[in-house]
Amino acid sequence: MAAILLQTADWLFVIDNMGLLLGGTAVTVALTVASILLGFAIGFPAGAIEVYGSERASRLVEQVGVVLRGTPLLVIIMILYFGLSISSSAFVTATIALGLRSAAYQSQIFRGALQSVDDGQLEAARAVAMSRLEAIRHVVVPQALRRSVPGFQNEFTIVLKDTSIAIVIGIGELLTTGQNLYEGGQSTAALEIFLAVSLVYFVLTFATNRSLDRLSDYYAVPEGTT
Amino acid sequence: MTQPLLSIDDLHKSYGSEEVLEGVGLEMDQGDVTVLIGPSGSGKSTLLRCVNRLTEINSGRIALDGEDVTGTDTDVNELRKQVGMVFQDFNLFAHLTALENVTLGPKKVLGMDAADAEAAGRNHLEQVGLLEQADSYPAELSGGQKQRVGIARALAMDPELLLFDEPTSALDPELVGEVVEVMRDLAAEGITMLVVSHEMDFARSAASDIVFLDDGEIVEHGPPEQLFQNPTADRTEQFLSRLHAHEETA
């Protein structure tokens, strides 16, 4: 193993092509951020509807969620791009596919978090004359968001790595860029390239998780009975 | 004749086939402190929750200042601005400090600006003896302190009537006194209070009326000295002697 990893030429090849890999990284980051934001914009209200919506609305959201969670991401991307052709831009299509799938998962993170807030909190807010919506917004949601951080960290990591599936509609993100480097026959440095790519994923995941931990600590409130 | 502040007429409430309140009637004037006692399951808390419509009634009438508040056209949020509530389990907003708990309603509901709400909130915390804990979160407070914040939170809305739902039942015995003391102060200030509690100390010293509720109906209603010394109904007497025996052993 040590002998393989010490092949200086291969590492030099990786370093020479760092620019390309970073370009792929930029695509990965852009795709992840856009998808997570779209997933939040849809997933948060969806989770809230599952908890607080009318029976009909919550059942509808639940059923759509089940279908999205039960369909492989690859299939979702292919259907959106080649089947429905919702956009001529592969990036937009990939964002929508990843975003919708993430929304389905995020809705469950927020549903669980909202349900975990004691009913007495909502009742006490109603008792100081807040409307149901105000009570949810000012009292339940701030507590639920704090509790959704761990689940959200998971979801971020999953979306980050799943962006690589976007290659099926021709998006060259980080992993694909790396793959192209040795598949083009310019080098045999496959292992080194994958290690470098893994390192980038690790740095991104680590940095984001730490940032979310910081955010969580900043907004943390002492736990216990209220 | 002046109008009663609260008047409840022939109130009925069922959960499914089980009738919890079977035609309850009650009147309170401004400044009255009415204590509801009765065995568990007698409908005390339900009656209380009907007044601010956390629970909807089946039939009957509840009027505040002579105005029916049970209709579908009544704005429940307007009603709840007039009727504050203190909960058995405190239910302080977990993510907010003591001061923020007290100011949230005035800021979001009454539209008070932040500085005014804070100044008023500090006064209310001082009133319950907790000014120094203004920046503490609920989890950092003792049970008695939490309940006093709960009282300050209700007071901050400047209600006409305060409902107390077993405010000391969830407290360790040694913490009951501080809450009772605050409630006694409020009673002395002339705040109208409808209290579900078996805290006899409070009932004897601060109540203007005692109402004994059993099986969903009012069995007896009178001033504390009369109801405690010379109860007219057998059921009241039995209940009081059980309560008394319990107090002795506690």
Q: Would you give an account of this structure?
A:
The complex is a heterodimer of chains A (226) and B (250). Chain A is mainly α and 226 residues long. Chain A has a single domain (2-218), classed as MetI-like (MetI-like fold, Orthogonal Bundle). Chain A is built from 11 helices and no strands. In chain A, helix 6 runs antiparallel to helix 9 (149-162). Chain A starts with a helix and ends in an 8-residue tail after the last helix. Chain B has 250 residues and is an alpha/beta fold. Chain B has one domain (6-249): Rossmann fold. Chain B has 9 helices and 10 strands. Chain B has helices at residues 44-51, 76-82, 98-108, 114-127, 143-155, 173-188, 200-206, 224-229, 234-249; strands at 6-15, 18-28, 33-37, 59-64, 67-68, 83-86, 161-165, 192-196, 209-214, 217-222. In chain B, the strands form 2 sheets. Chain B has a 6-stranded mixed sheet, sandwiched between helices. In chain B, strands 2-1-4-5 form a 4-stranded antiparallel sheet, with helices on one face. The N and C termini of chain B lie far apart (45 Å). The mean pLDDT of chain B is 94. The A-B interface holds A 118, 120-121, 123-131, 134, 138-139, 142-143, 146, 221-226 and B 52, 54, 77-78, 80-81, 84-85, 87, 89-96, 104-105, 108-109, 137-140, 146, 153-154, 157.
Any guess at the CATH architecture of chain A? Orthogonal Bundle
End-to-end span of chain A in angstroms? 56 Å
Q: Which series of helices and strands of chain A comes N to C?
A: HHHHHHHHHHH
Strand content of chain A: under 5%
What fold name stands as the CATH topology of chain A? MetI-like fold
CATH architecture of chain B: 3-Layer(aba) Sandwich
Instruction: Say what oligomer this is.
Output: heterodimer
Write out key terms for the chains shown.
heterodimer, A: 226 residues, mainly alpha, MetI-like fold, 11 helices, 80% helix, elongated, B: 250 residues, alpha/beta, Rossmann fold, six-stranded mixed sheet, four-stranded antiparallel sheet, 9 helices, globular
